[in-house]
Design a protein that fits this description.
The structure holds two protein chains of two kinds. Chain A contains seven helices and eight strands. By secondary structure, chain A is α+β, with helices and mostly antiparallel strands. In chain A, helix 2 packs antiparallel against helix 7, helix 4 runs parallel beside helix 6 and helix 6 packs antiparallel against helix 7. Chain B has two domains: 49 residues, Helicase, Ruva Protein, domain 3 (Orthogonal Bundle), CATH 1.10.8; 101 residues, Dna Topoisomerase Vi A Subunit, Chain: A, domain 2. Helices cover 43% and strands 12% of the residues of chain B. Chain B is built from eight helices and six strands; from the N terminus they run H-H-H-E-E-H-E-H-E-H-E-H-E-H. A four-stranded parallel beta sheet of chain B has the order 4-3-5-6. In chain B, a hairpin with a 6-residue loop joins strand 1 and strand 2. The longest helix of chain B is centred in the N-terminal third of the chain and has 18 residues. The mean pLDDT of chain B is 92. The chains are: A alpha+beta, B alpha/beta. At the A-B interface, helix 1, helix 2 and helix 7 of A face helix 7 and helix 8 of B.
Chain lengths: 246, 201
């Protein structure tokens, strides 16, 4: 049993003195782990950093075995985000949340979006909005996708401003007015009719609203039923982006 | 199953030696045999040194270092610069800096790095003591000598944020080409860091 694939490094754990158990998000084989001999060596450590894009070859006798892995660097995204505390926290949060995906279950769509987000982590004007979209995509892949295309009450596709915390469906500004306090804000950059031109600028407030939206559904639909909480870096990311807002 | 060739005491010695880093079962046997052969010159002095060190071992209540005295020898040393604290992840990092002999400062050992996957958050690190030392007012600079890994740098950013309200100067180690490093063999992350922090000649 063997395969070769491209992947993003999600986690690295020391195994003995020289080896490491590496967990990857692969394009065609989903979340997959393997033992990397010499994974703690001076040569392998820069490659085996969370968020790095690698090419991997895995080999085992049976598919359910841990197996052995060989990993080569394609693009070092970890290094490019090290100077920006928020970007580095987003990378850590992304890797921690990716571990919610079931093992060996391919999610090529999410993989593509992941690479896209990682590619922009050195551009602080772009990555926060991409990160929120990535969390939306993760919810979708986990089977808890939000329906932000039309209003749950009136069916309109215009002026969508809220999301129902129960159904996960968009609600228009008018229909949501009486329940405003109970509804979640829907930032415009997440709607299909997102603004263009000068109005297309995503503000720090939009990012906070987006993170609150995805955070609510990640917590209530994915994590709480498993008796888990949002990962610590995710909370730190919200705090860091709020600091920037001020 | 292999026959036992020694008594239970020696087997236990081999087992314990085999738990040491760098020693497997075979090398533990070699080490045990060396000790047995040189009982007076090596084994008995080693046993008494181990017993003495184990009996006196203390965690330094100031910096988190391990020593036989509390505060540790480094914290007691009056020749060290009291204005500079070098923050490291592990005691091994402190020893590495001391071996190099390039900085004569006080240290602070965090006892690890932030690692959400291993359940290590800020509460599990020796951060309260660091904050208390900085708030004492003697310290003017904190040098974050943490590993250039995602976890190490995440910890560095977290500590920087934690120390920001105190007004103390926070610095970190430079990143780039190592001594004797050939560009052809360096990874792209190191090269990018080296280019980013280039200096005018």
């Amino acid at each position: 049993m063997e395969w070769s694939d491209e992947a993003v490094v999600l986690s690295v754990r020391a195994h003995g003195e020289t080896a490491a158990i590496v967990e990857l998000l692969t394009r065609a084989h989903g979340r997959h782990s393997g033992l990397v001999h010499g994974g703690r060596s001076r040569k392998a450590r820069p490659v085996l950093q969370m968020g790095n894009h690698v090419s991997a070859a895995w080999k085992a006798r049976l598919p359910e075995h841990l197996g052995h892995m060989r990993v080569e660097l394609q693009r070092g995204y970890a290094a490019s985000s090290m100077d920006d505390p928020a970007a580095l926290t987003a990378l850590t949060s992304l890797c921690a949340l990716s571990r919610l995906l079931p093992e060996h279950d391919p999610h090529p769509n999410l993989y593509e979006i992941t690479l896209f987000v990682l590619g922009f982590l050195d551009d602080e004007t772009v990555w926060p909005a991409l990160y929120v979209r990535w969390e939306l995509a993760l919810l979708d892949e986990l089977g808890f996708g939000l329906d932000l295309s039309s209003c749950a009450a009136t069916g309109t596709t215009e002026d969508l401003a809220h999301v129902s915390p129960k159904s996960g469906r968009a609600v228009s500004r008018g229909a949501g007015l009486p329940y405003q306090d109970k509804l979640l804000s829907l930032p415009q950059f997440l709607t299909k009719s997102r603004p263009t031109g000068a109005n297309a600028i995503v503000t720090a407030g939009d990012i906070s609203a987006g993170l609150a939206l995805t955070g609510h559904f990640l917590a209530t639909r994915v994590l709480n039923p498993r008796d888990l909480a949002l990962p610590e870096p995710r909370g730190r990311l919200v705090g860091l982006l709020r600091q920037r807002e001020r | 199953m292999a026959k036992k060739i020694t008594g239970p005491e020696i087997e236990r010695l081999i087992q314990l030696l085999g738990r040491m880093p760098g020693l497997g079962p075979r090398s533990a046997r070699k080490a045990a045999l060396a000790l047995l052969k040189r009982r007076d010159a090596l084994m008995i002095p080693l046993a008494s040194a181990l017993a003495e060190a184990a009996g006196k071992l203390k965690d330094c209540t100031i910096c988190g270092n391990l020593d036989t005295v509390d505060p540790c020898s480094i914290c007691r040393d009056p020749a060290r610069d009291p204005n500079l604290i070098v923050v490291v992840e592990e005691i091994g990092d402190l020893w590495a800096l001391e071996r190099a002999g390039v900085v004569s400062a006080r240290y602070h050992v965090l006892g690890g790095h932030l690692s959400p996957l291993d359940g290590v958050g800020p509460d599990q690190l020796n951060l309260d003591a660091l904050l208390a030392r900085v708030n004492d007012g003697l310290v003017s600079e904190v040098l974050l000598a943490l590993n250039t890994t995602v976890e190490g740098q995440s910890t560095a950013h977290y500590v920087t944020g934690l120390l920001a309200p105190t007004g103390v100067a926070v610095s970190r180690l430079a990143q780039g080409v190592p001594m004797g490093g050939e560009l052809d063999y360096l990874d792209e992350g190191t090269l990018a860091a080296a280019i980013k922090s280039r200096r005018r000649m």
